[in-house]
Amino acid sequence: MLKALRFFGWPLLAGVLIALLIIQRYPQWVGLPSLDVNLQQAPQTTSTQQGPVSYADAVVIAAPAVVNLYTTKVINKPAHPLFEDPQFRRFFGDNLPKQQRMESSLGSG
Description:
By secondary structure, the protein is α+β, with helices and mostly antiparallel strands.
């Protein structure tokens, strides 16, 4: 049974696909109405502006509403867990400097 399906299956599948392609291309051969579509090209619109597109007008309108935010903050970094190790403290002592860093933010809205 499986051998017969393999033997006849591929030619049968190919025949069905070819038949579907023919019916799609020539539907009048099997009595279906023809689907001829008449495409017309839309008229081209001409732009009054020549050259590159610019956002200058939008920027002039929106510029007064835009604000810039600049902030800086001192952040005390937590000590590394290694600094809590007794062996490490024995060599470097207890008075290690605290680490700080400056964090800055920039934003606009």
